[in-house]
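Example record for the data management plan.
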Amino acid sequence: MKFRGGLLVALATALVAALVAAPPATAKVYKPIIWAIDGPVPGGTPFKITVDTLGAEGTTLAIQVKSQNTWRTVHRQPGPKYAGMDNITITAPNFTGTLSIRATLSRGKKRVATSVTRTVEVFSDGLTPQKPYPAQIPGQAGRWFKADGHELLMGPTLIGEEAWRVVSADTLVTRPKSGWSIVLGVVNYKAKDSSGIWPDVSFEYLAADGNTYRPGNELSEGGYCRYSLDLSFKTGKPDNDLYQVAPGDYPQFYPCAVVPDGAVAGGVWKVSVLSTSLPATQYAQAAQTPNPELPVGLTPLNPYRVGQHFPIRFVYGDYELSFSPTITGPSAWQVYAAGAGRKPVAGWSAVVANVTIRNTTGNDAAPFLSVFDPNYVGNDGIRYPDDGVSKGGYCGWIPSDLYARSLPAGATMVFTVCSVVPDDAISGGVWQTGPINPFISPSSVYVQGAS
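Corresponding structural encoding:
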């Protein structure tokens, strides 16, 4: 009896311990919740989902995906004892379309809870040069893609003289040598934070000859163009723009490269991230289009129009400017007949415009107009400053004492700007204000010149 009694006691003790250690099979299990999916995602690459199991001790948590009407399990782990969120990494299948995702909880072979199904878009383009992301151009929708957390959308690509006109007014740029061309991309982006995308992402041009080309430098064989980041800041609404880059906005930048003429056609943009995030390299289409849409006033190809008012924000105040029609030839020089200047030589002419400036700051401020320093950029892409050393001639400001002049709040004044330009470079040129000026943002603004 003692043996029997001891055995019964031992069995009872073990049964109680087992009941305490394991939850009853009938314990309530709540549906898991998929809170977030990091998408859209490229096929064949890892991505994260966030799952809340609300506590599911004694179960198995599985992540299932459905593509082509078939569910399959891609991840398993023990269900957690307590409520909490898990970041789970799975790999997207290699296909283009909608991927359905759900989380399940099971005990043994019995499924006891299933989450609401979530979806994410999966794409296969952009991962090879043969199938780049499509660019956003008239008649074709582009695709936003992620690079190190930033979102990018490739716009049109400018090639040759068109690209040269955009970058030429930069004093650090050199015209490509014979047999080479500038290739200039337009990229919209949403930065992941206020620091912008530099230096997280790098753009190169993968040309038809299999080589990659970058902006180069002063010693490059073909020439040099600046990699222009945050050139336009915001686009399309200059009256409302504060010219500040902020997360979630759609600023632009202009990657460029100097490429041999014979290798330009058929090339693509190669986008690399300078971190360990995946994918490390992606490709975007280099698509040309007639009359590409560029931010108004911020490139020579889309200048502000005569009479159009636009803002200039300066370290000492905010101003509004507008230009009158540009006059050229003998009538332009008559403006300077009684003033300082050096008459243009044969083949060169003065170009003159009146500029109206209004102080919109709300308090008296010195406009420091010589810092705005308008120059004329000819149709040849060359900048012709009024610096007194031009071989063609020289004409200065009217009046000449603008640097120290104060402008009361709300007041307006008119001044005259002038440059001496080769005759064949005048038509189609633009005025450029504030070149490479660290105090004004944007650093350069372009206004319609002589027609």
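Summary line stored alongside the record: The longest helix spans residues 2-21.
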